[in-house]
């Protein structure tokens, strides 16, 4: 049974059936599920209230600068050393980790996949996760992996934590209820959930099967991008990120914990739930975010700005302005630019772009890119609007137009993304995808200076 944190603003039922949240990104929070469970004035008293143990979970080195130092103090029934026993190796054959280079028959090119059908067999979030691309090196904590997941059953007595990186979960069909050490998170299509490295959790589909995407970030933790000349507001505002209040699971039954470490999977049996944190404080915690609260900015006179203006979260690398991973969205917005080609322009890019569609239609690829589908445009491979989108945008009356019922996203990284064998051999791969540009004919005429 999950027991909620007492709320000052509203009464909660004894057994919490829905999550409760605090607001803010990167804030220092404190929350307790029992009155007085959180020690005051110090982190590690000689004896904690309620017979709890004090334990620190660090998401950064101890000596990281103050603005980048991340840690939380957890007050739990048992320390984490009791949440692990003797491990044995297990295989999750579809979850791959960089460096992962395999031989396959697929040549270089722009790639796109139709959505895969939601499976009918019993799959949890872990067993239903499949890797599409990897890049970088988990051993040096650089790069990322792009996954898809399909969950049809809950992780009832199964728990997981990832020592390799944080997980950015992007549901596309159905919701996920994610019970973590810090409390409960519920995320559906249009939301994201961010689970930091080392945080234990279990996931359950809500209202039927859940399908979506996952970015596994091996590098520096996701943070909000700098706004620069945009100033203090717009884009993803910190107040719209929701952090769970403390909620614990007091369960003395056989349970399994799986740990991902340097690409391998290790499992241990314990006799209790590891989600036993009764109170916590700090700034290292899971969160959720409603992508529909993103406040986009854009051109209000002419031209199409770079897609970086749609960055929700960024994980920086050691090189200024070059991300280990950017999480970018293309949400509902007004298009008002005058005498301009309004869709994204044609380009070649040093970055590698893995895209997915959560709902609606994507304006640069109105056909062939469906919700649950994916595309991959690797570094220095040209891409841009298909023929239909080009023709429509080149001849459209440039009145203000609102793009509605649309939400696409991109995992963009500085590293080349290598396909897994699963991705290369997936039946939903579109062999004719490059043909979407075949209708872009030559219109050059040296005798005509003015556009026709």
What keyword list fits this structure?
452 residues, mainly beta, 10-stranded antiparallel sheet, 6-stranded antiparallel sheet, 28 strands
Topology:
Layout: E1 2-4, E2 21-23, E3 29-32, E4 53-58, E5 71-76, E6 88-90, E7 111-113, E8 129-137, E9 142-151, E10 158-162, E11 166-180, E12 183-187, E13 191-195, E14 201-217, E15 241-244, E16 247-249, E17 255-261, E18 264-270, E19 277-282, E20 287-290, E21 311-316, E22 323-330, E23 333-335, E24 352-360, E25 374-377, H1 387-395, E26 401-403, E27 406-413, E28 418-419, H2 421-424
Parallel strand pairs: 10-17
Antiparallel strand pairs: 1-16, 2-15, 3-19, 4-5, 5-19, 6-18, 7-25, 8-9, 8-28, 9-14, 11-12, 11-13, 11-14, 13-20, 15-20, 17-18, 21-22, 22-27, 23-26, 24-25, 24-27
Task: Walk me through the structure.
The strands form six sheets. Strands 2, 8, 9, 11, 12, 13, 14, 15, 20 and 28 form a ten-stranded antiparallel beta sheet that branches. The chain has a six-stranded antiparallel beta sheet with strand order 7-25-24-27-22-21, with no helix packed on it. It is 3% helix and 37% strand. It is globular. By secondary structure, it is mainly β.
